Amino acid sequence: MLNIKTVPTYPQPAYPTPYNQKYESEYCDSRKAPKCSKNGTLTFCLQDSEYPEKEVKYAIDYDPIILKKYADVAEQSADNLVDGLTSLAEKQFDYSEYHGNTFEKGNWVGGEGYICPSDVLYARPVRAINAEGEWRVVVQEMAWPGYTQTQRTETCLFPGSSCRTLAPCYQSKCLQKYVYQRMLSFDPCDPQKGIFIDIYKLPSACSCHISA
């Protein structure tokens, strides 16, 4: 006999529109990049002057099961996420002399660091593009004091460039890797949905690939 496990479902709360808020159609194009994304060059924002704090707070207050949806490890660093490396050492990585060119001096000199230079953040996004290409507001402490959503992101500084310190006889390049993450979210174009879990594609690693 098959042992089939069912996933519990919860009723979707009904939310009155907060403060009789009316959203302009221009603001409600979920695929239009917000100002914080610098004309769409960023896929997530760490600061957002247009963050709808009141609306998010209102939706949280009307959601009786929000704590069932929430999970986070607030204190994240190399100390608990990278084996054999301290957060202090990671912060001191310096790639200022490397420019992605195998035959430049900067490819061979420099101190400790990853073979593919990257920018590592322990970030708390406030707005981000979901897996469907739509912008969502991410629930953070500014709207829900004491609660955060933290993600470790790692972005290649020179995607497609040769790996640092490898001899030219190796055909190598730095590849950007991604991971899908779930975060509590709010859709400013559809506030009646309240708080829900959405999926986001975030940069997770910069890996060196050597061709055969």
UniProtKB/TrEMBL annotation:
Transmembrane segments: none annotated. Keywords: Disulfide bond, Glycoprotein, Signal. The keyword Signal applies. GO terms for cellular component: extracellular region; extracellular space. It comes from the Eukaryota. Pfam families: Spaetzle. Residues 114-210 form the Spaetzle domain. The keyword Signal applies. GO terms for biological process: central nervous system formation; innate immune response. GO terms for molecular function: growth factor activity; Toll binding. InterPro entries: Cystine-knot_cytokine (IPR029034), Spaetzle (IPR032104), Spz/Toll_ligand-like (IPR052444). PANTHER family: NEUROTROPHIN 1-RELATED. This is Spaetzle domain-containing protein.
